[in-house]
């Protein structure tokens, strides 16, 4: 499937572009394009106006204001004072002043409870005020110019500004003030945010119109850089927070197909291995459907049928594991270990079903166990003289093309509307209807009368879609002419396309026959045995099957590509004109 994208438009001074690009690179998910537009005093004024509106919006969005910030700063200071006064309990500031007037100096101390020494009372008048688990608070009294004894190793702290009760009252009053201010901001956010957003869009539209009309001969430093970026919609929440920190104006909007966004595919672990196959033809555009899941199934099946040998499948499995584990290093296959292993597994299964392993016909081999004989397909299709593999190839081809036509009808309807897809639906009903009627008639499900009416109904609906309404609103005579031309192309094209699938049978047969020829040649050389003959036998089999394996792999890769890229994509209407998602990333 195609991952949803969000579009971001940025406007910033060109002088800031290096810092901006660096910050986007750190985000690691933004795929951007850029352009440069001139800026002058008029555009700078519009830009400043937009900046002011954006600042108001950011403040409302963050639910803050200069007043609220100041209130919270004062509240934090009062809470700190309250926390400092809390251990000293309720005391009288007036009493302290009276004692100082008599020449007595009151000192406030705190020390770790473990370090507090009760014997300090012998050195100076001392009163423990509060003793907590970790900290002890106490006061000392000195007369006149007396100095604190050195034995008292405690931290002296300032006297509390006021009683804890009085400070708590201040804190509660300021908390009420904070709550009232926050309520006013939230009310303003609810009332003013839509108006500010509308005004911001209006100002940015005015800026865009102005930039489109001004002359482009300004100095290089007097330019604006305009970036359009796309990022996966799954990143919206994170990007919203990060982009708010950038020195650039950002407009976020839902991506439309006409924006031509880059394409990022999101598939299952299995289908993801075949995304490179889709990329070889071309990625889908944004409103197309991702063909990768379909390719993953049919390319795998086609490859296995073209190989058609269980023994070669086992070799591919071992090669895939070796490449995946980096035991075997081949540059062109780097990162393809899993894909090769999957292809090997499919080849092994299909090879066993078709009855071939290393060129040996498993149907006639005496050493093949009974359970394996049960899964091997017969040589001839039941009731005919045709090889089972050839008939199977044609059946798979018909299925592949029918799925392509379903894909085209559904995707065209989604992209362009039903009116533009009437012809596609007409052909789909005709072909699928014909197949269903034929199968039901041959299977005895339909009586001759039912078959006749089914043919009439399917034919009438298909005729209307293909000839009369293939382009609604156009002259019917032109539609009929276009329908006739389309009929000629489709009829001749489908016949050739279906016959193309016989290559699946032919390649598998050729590989099996060539492998069998090397086995026969090796057996002729071996004769009655002997060391020299055994060496020649092994060399013939090793070299012969290696060459055959390489040729089979080449054919099994190229021809399934052709069947998918030409036959399937042609009949499915697939464009494949999408650009690959390539975000800015830090490669350090």
Question: Would you give an account of this structure?
Answer:
By secondary structure, the chain is an alpha+beta fold. The protein folds into four domains: 1-40 and 214-264, 2-Layer Sandwich (Alpha-Beta Plaits), CATH 3.30.70; 92-159, no CATH class; 268-377 and 503-570, no CATH class; 382-500, no CATH class. It is built from 18 helices and ten strands. It has helices spanning 17-27, 41-61, 66-85, 93-101, 164-213, 236-243, 269-272, 275-281, 292-307, 310-324, 337-354, 370-375, 388-416, 422-442, 448-468, 476-500, 502-526, 531-572, and strands spanning 5-13, 31-38, 104-112, 126-131, 135-143, 155-157, 223-232, 249-254, 356-357, 360-361. Strands 2-7-1-8 form a four-stranded antiparallel β-sheet. Strand 4 (126-131) and strand 5 (135-143) form a beta hairpin. The longest helix is centred in the first third of the chain and has 50 residues, at 164-213. It is elongated, with a radius of gyration of 41 Å. The relative contact order is 0.11. Mean pLDDT is 83; it is low at 215-221.
